[in-house]
Amino acid sequence: MPYVPSRQAKRIRQALSTCETKVLPVRDVIVNGNGVKKKTLRTETHGKSRFASRLRVAMRPAGHLHGRQRGYLILDGRLIPVALGRTGIRADKREGDGATPRGTWHAREVRYRADRGPRPITGLPVLRTRRGDGWCDDPRDGRYNRPVSLPMRASHEEMWRDDGLYDLVVVLDHNSRPRRSRRGSAVFLHIARGTFEPTAGCVAFRPTDLRRLLARLSPKTAIEIK
To answer: Residue 49 pLDDT > 60, yes or no?
Structure first.
């Protein structure tokens, strides 16, 4: 794990803890391999709502650690480890390049396996994942980067998986309005493997951390990847 200067991290946590609301938005706070770089730190109040209308979460790769692309997310003053795409973060995301797309995105919905865990607490629309649910990743198909029903001939991902990675999935609005061919599909926040292996472009979390993040998300929440 990258070294995080204790004094600097403590100052950030203290600043966050002074906000009177339950939502603690963080802006322009980046964690990288050199520690915490604080550009600006501001908070906004939203009454007593636990959801953030302007929450910005910044992420940056922490570098290659034993061949694994890792990053960190700051939420409520905590540093949360995440797995990133195997080729890092790129602004010019392309289908199959293994990169996590740089930019600011919004969560559209969350899908969960009811047989693997409870319904998540969140401000997002919640759908149950069912057998036969898929996601088209074929740029030549008119359903590219859209949910589909299986079976289908075009290339796709299965949302009902045995490995548990999609037991809890947050669908981002990356390449959705408008959809452009070969600009990337199925970019999710989902559960990480136990060893935090790199993803095909998604951002992956420990199950408990993903549920904690979901409790802060609404459709208006901005998620910044940088």
So the answer is: no
Separation between Cα atoms, residue 181 and residue 98, nearest integer Å: 16
Q: Is the pTM of this model over 0.90?
A: no
Contact yes or no for 55/23 (Cβ under 8 A): yes
Categorize the per-residue pLDDT at 62 as very low, low, confident or very high, splitting at 50, 70 and 90. Answer: low
- Domain borders along the chain are 6-225
**Which of these is catalytic: 136, 156, 174, 202?**
202
| pLDDT of 22 above 70 | no
Cβ atoms 110, 126 nearer than 8 A: yes
CA 57 to chain centre: 9
The answer to whether the CB of 22 falls within 8 A of the CB of 49 is yes
**Secondary element (H or E) of residue 7:** helix 6-17
Give CA–CA dist 209/59, Å, rounded: 15
| 202 catalytically annotated | yes
d(Cα 139, Cα 207) in Å, to the nearest integer? 31
Of 120 and 31, the one with more pLDDT: 120
Write the single-letter amino acid at 180: R
